[in-house]
Amino acid sequence: MGGRILIVDGDVDVATLLRGALRRRGYEAESVASGVDALRWLDARPADVILAHLRMPHMSGVELCVASRNAHPEVCTIVLTGDGMLDSAIAAIRAGAYDYITKPIDLEALVIALERAVSHVRLTREVHKLRSEAESERPIATIVGDSPAARRVLALVHKVANSDTTVLVAGESGTGKELVARAIHDASPRRSGPFVALNCAALPASLLESELFGHVKGAFTDARRDRTGVFAQAEGGTILLDEIGEMPLEMQAKLLRVLQDHRVRPVGSDEELAFDARVIASTNRALEVDVAQKRFREDLYYRINVVQIVVPPLRARPGDVLALAQHFTRKIAARTRKTVMGISVDAARHLVDHDWPGNVRELENTMERAVALTNFDEIMVEDLPERVRGNPGGSSTTSAVRPDDLVSLAEVERRHIRQVMRAVGGNKTMAARILGIDRRSLYRRLGEPGPSDDDTPLPST
Description:
The protein has 461 residues and is an alpha/beta fold. 46% of the residues lie in helices and 13% in strands.
């Protein structure tokens, strides 16, 4: 994940070791010697996480937590503490610290804590950004999102909007194919005309022809008056043939002729009527496969598939989840007259972690439920459905561990000592300082003879 980490520790050796270790793991790490220097550093440049020792001169870790939270509330603080300083660590948490790490420092545990903190900071900033945009009433386009996938769709929309080219919009159910079709219409010279959508999967074959082309009075038993079909209704505008892959084969042949001639014959009529409407089709099926298996006419496929726009599923554009959620929250709150302004950071984390198999439609339904249930001015975790809040961050690592893989505490200690020794290049003095033990204890744990001179304990850092 990376991130910008500021290490605050008066021990130059410890700070240097941590800075190097974090840089090797992809973090932008810098270090300063005191809390005062840290606040000056933060005033001049950004950071995601402060990694601060609790015991420092002039300004303690707890005091730094309070000061940084007041001056830079978006920055997380993780404090480093010895085993005998847990009361101070708890005081730091109460003062606003995000987490604490006890010595001896386990670098892997530290990296996990940093990943969580960086993720929290980025979510917090994103939520605040979206909330600011909502408060400034920034207009949001029909297609919401700034991910590369969303930008590619928007680029294609703008390219095809000014022509009358037939467009096929493809994508899974719930991805927003109709929104893409509407965006094409709204950006086109036909924007002042009607936008008419017909779901080809929602009508039986016996009614589909009448809905498409219209009928005259007496054409069949219930035809008590003339009816205008959607092609005529969309005159001067755009018609969307939604889920065209569900259209029966016999109707496909009639549609092909209409698209070729731009003329329709209402059911029961002897007269053909010209129409002027742009045609957009959408499908959640693999029409190429349907063509190969003779379920969809090849000539119709090439007629509607002049330009194809593939709308990606929401799982392929996770960076758009919060923007969409904020958009839906604003829209639904305005419609229902509830004063819901945004989404809490914890709720945002669950939204980002969910896979969204139902795509944008599932997200919109989720936010509608949340707006209806919340008792606050922002969406909380408890307002989300169980399927969304069930397991943020993926599956539990504990459940993935086999009993045979577990080792004793002594083995954990030996592995950690070897890891620290490798990290410091075999420097036993620095390793002992990081581990929080004296050199004689380190030699004993390594199974090596100790130094001949009296070994005084290293200061606790």
